[in-house]
Write a structure and sequence with these properties.
With 526 residues, chain A is of the alpha+beta class. In chain A, 58% of the residues lie in helices and 13% in strands. Chain A has a five-stranded antiparallel sheet with strand order 2-1-5-4-3, sandwiched between helices. Chain A has a five-stranded mixed sheet with strand order 7-9-10-12-11. Classes of the chains: A alpha+beta (526), B alpha/beta (236).
Chain lengths: 526, 236
């Protein structure tokens, strides 16, 4: 669509150039006709000079002048009317073949003709001018419309610069470049020059002055002049536009100034809109980080301090009053220390994972992996926690390999199984199943507990959200957030439902990719 | 291992508390322990005292764990167990590929530590005794006849599957990295073709395991490699 548009603009430009050239040649042509018209009239009237009276002959001259005026404008018509007078006097007014006129009627007639010719051509000229002005207005309105349309799609400074430069080139025929400040408020050339009609050779020092002093500046060199305009809107300067006027035209021309100012205004406004959006986004991010930090701090202080208190309690008891305790009591204290330390270890590793994954984009180390192995590894990792729970794994044979980061997906499964263990009574079964669907693999982890309370299906994936019943559990409310981040990084989805006859089910959908070929491996070895 | 000569273990670890704990623990189990607080001292102790086994922390102050592993391998074939923190996942795999025999992620329990050490020492014994039959649970592998049995019934496996299994048997109880397996079975040019491994390990699991999604013998260490469970480890 954009291509089309620029194509139209090019056509438009070419036609304007043609019009200019035609205007110039038509002016010469007009003068020629202005000279020729009286003689043509004379030639036509000469054979009829005895039939027609001088008034009728004057009328034909008037017609000639009028036609020239309507076709070629004022200049040509004045030539025609002024030339008509002596020609008429010479050929038709008594005495013939002399410029003298002694008939009063002829003098008056001639006078009237000249006045009428002038008034008409004046009037026609004005109509022409009006038409031209309104056409120009329309062109400018169109140009501004196209610019604002293009700018409304811009989503960053770079795209604004590209749009502005190409529109300035199309509508003013001028090369230009937008300069933006770096974080230290020094104007910089854009790092990439995307367009052929970008202006090069800008004096950054002058641009910087323009930027700091809010004024337009102009440099004049022998061949060309570059003008610098600050892009300013609501007192904030977004950048500087450097523009090189094309030869023969001047942007300070009062006819162009308003148009050009509107152009600049549109660009400045767009830049301001973008910078405000960015500020708002940054503020949001900061607020989110802040609340994340607070939540994390409170979670850490609660969840790490509780086990620490118990460890220190048991430890000091053992060290300070060692003799007072029986062997059995000592063993008890040691167990407390071990259990709590293990809980802390689990917690810290989960928080470290979360910190690592939320610190930046998740970087996936994707490889071809078998789901079966990942399920097996996750179950193996949780062996101690699972105890004697019946685990049903329903994985169809010959599942395709998945293009995934095995370590992260294993973590997702581990988190889901761990949740199932936490929220269902000991001994409750857990089902892990997979189903091949069109273009994706659905993996389901279900338990037989109470399920997720209605309306909370999405909330459980929020950062630091915990179901109320969990408050005594040692979770931070990050596990499911982590799961969702990991699965979405793989281009998959994760959601939860309560299945009839079961408790909560977590369903992961992972995309299936075209698996690689195995090149007759079995033959290679023997 | 015989009762008269207790195995000598070299602990290379910069944290004195961890070192102390390891020493107490290992001495209690009847092992002799020598310590080094950095890589340089560790390497010179390997030369001078020729220990039976090395426990190597990956986060040493002077030389990084991978370089220490490489130099250890140049010096001798002695078993190396690396200790890694969670943030050193990639280092751990690099150390294993560089020749370390197994790893433990901190924090670990003494039970896990002893199981790993036993498996490592067993590996040494096996190479010395030139093992002919490997047995764990109901799985029996007759290395001389290249035959595999589950509960006494022969299982037919393909040559590639057998090769994979025999490598895992040779390192029974220890982790074998993807790279090691790919290199030994398919050759150096295939070390990135992980999908070969997935397919053949899958076939092997389906032949040897009752529930391949919860294997008893062929354990997957996600992101690292595979481990053939040796029953002896579980008991200790």
């Amino acid at each position: 669509m954009r291509k089309n548009e620029s194509g139209n603009e090019q056509d438009h430009q070419i036609s304007e150039m043609r019009l200019n050239r035609r205007r110039c040649s038509s002016r010469l042509q007009g003068y020629a006709w202005g000279i020729a018209a009286p003689f043509i009239c004379t030639l036509m009237d000469w054979p009829l000079r005895h039939v027609l009276g001088p008034a009728s002959i004057l009328m034909t001259y008037l017609l000639g002048v009028f036609l020239v005026a309507s076709r070629y404008g004022r200049g040509a018509s004045i030539i025609a009317s002024l030339l008509s007078a002596p020609v008429f006097a010479f050929y038709f007014a008594h005495p013939i073949f002399s410029f003298a006129i002694n008939d009063l009627e002829n003098i008056i007639g001639l006078g009237v003709m000249i006045v009428v010719a002038n008034v008409t051509s004046d009037f026609l000229e004005r109509v022409h001018l009006q038409a031209e002005i309104s056409k120009q207005r329309e062109n400018r309105a169109n140009a501004l419309y196209r610019l604002s349309q293009a700018l409304s799609d811009a989503h960053n400074q770079q795209s604004v610069a590209t749009i502005a430069v190409s529109h300035i080139y199309d509508d003013f025929g001028a090369l230009s470049v937008l300069l933006f400040p770096d974080p230290e408020f020094h104007l910089q050339y854009p790092s990439d020059m995307p367009l052929g009609h970008s202006l090069r050779g800008v004096d950054l020092k002058i641009a910087q002055q323009t930027y700091q002093q809010h004024t337009a500046k102009q440099t004049s060199e022998s061949t060309s002049s570059i003008a610098y305009y600050s892009l300013e809107h609501s007192q904030i300067i977004q950048g500087v536009l450097a523009i090189k006027s094309p030869a023969g035209s001047d942007l300070t021309n009062p006819k162009l100034v308003t148009f050009f100012d509107t152009f600049l205004n549109l660009i400045s406004q767009t830049l301001e809109r973008l910078s405000l959006t960015e500020q708002a986004n940054n503020a949001n991010l900061q607020a989110e980080t802040e609340s994340l930090r607070n939540a994390l701090l409170s979670a850490i202080s609660h969840d790490l301090r509780t086990p620490l208190t118990r460890i220190i309690g048991a430890g000091t008891a053992l060290v300070e009053n060692n003799e007072d305790f029986s062997a059995e009591e000592k063993l008890d204290f040691n167990r407390v220390i071990l259990d709590e330390a293990q809980r802390m270890s689990e917690l810290t590793s989960k928080m470290l994972d979360m910190a690592r994954l939320t610190a930046g984009e998740i970087i996936l180390h994707q490889e071809w992996n078998a789901l079966e192995e990942i399920v097996g590894s996750a179950l193996n990792r949780l062996e101690k926690n699972l105890g004697t729970r019946p685990i049903r794994t329903l994985l169809p044979d010959h599942l395709p390999l998945l293009w995934i980061d095995a370590v992260l997906v294993e973590q997702v499964l581990t988190n889901l199984i761990e949740n199932a263990i936490k929220y269902t009574p000991a001994g409750g079964p857990i089902d892990i199943s997979a189903e091949l669907l069109a273009g994706k693999l659905a993996i389901t982890v279900s338990d037989y507990g109470r399920g997720i309370p209605q309306g909370m299906e999405e909330k459980v994936f929020d950062k630091f959200y915990r179901l109320e019943s969990e408050s005594h559990q040692g979770g931070v409310g990050l596990g499911l957030t982590l799961c969702r981040a990991i699965i979405e990084a793989h281009g998959g989805t994760i959601h939860t439902t309560n299945q009839y006859g079961k408790g909560a089910s977590f369903i992961i959908n992972l995309p299936i990719h075209e698996p690689p070929e195995l090149n007759c491996l079995e033959g290679m070895t023997e | 291992m015989t009762d008269e000569v207790k195995p000598l273990i070299l602990v290379i670890e910069d944290d004195p508390q961890t070192r102390r704990l390891l020493k107490t623990n290992l001495c209690n189990r009847g092992w002799r322990v020598i310590e080094a607080e950095n890589g340089k001292n560790g390497l010179s102790l390997v030369k001078s005292d020729s220990p039976d086994l090395v426990i190597l922390d990956l986060g040493l102050p002077d030389i990084d764990g991978i370089s220490v592993t490489k130099r250890l391998r140049q010096l001798s074939d002695l078993p190396v167990l690396v200790l890694s923190a969670r943030s050193q996942e990639q280092n751990k795999i690099m150390a294993l590929d560089a020749g370390a025999d197994d790893y433990l992620t901190k924090p670990f329990s003494t039970g896990e530590l002893h199981a790993r050490l036993q498996a490592l020492l067993r590996r040494v014994m096996r190479t010395m005794n030139n093992m002919e039959i490997f047995q764990t649970g109901e799985l029996t592998v007759e290395l001389a006849r290249r035959k595999v049995f589950i509960a006494g019934n022969e299982v037919h496996i393909t040559p590639i599957e057998y090769r994979l299994l025999s490598i895992l048997v040779r390192h029974a109880g220890l982790v074998v990295t993807h790279r090691q397996l790919l290199k030994e079975v398919w050759g150096g040019e295939h070390i990135h073709d992980q999908h070969y491994l997935r397919v053949y390990m899958g076939q092997l699991r389906h032949k040897l395991e009752i529930n391949p999604a919860r294997p008893r013998y062929l354990r997957t260490e996600v992101g690292v490699g595979y481990r053939l469970v040796d029953d002896g480890d579980e008991e200790s």
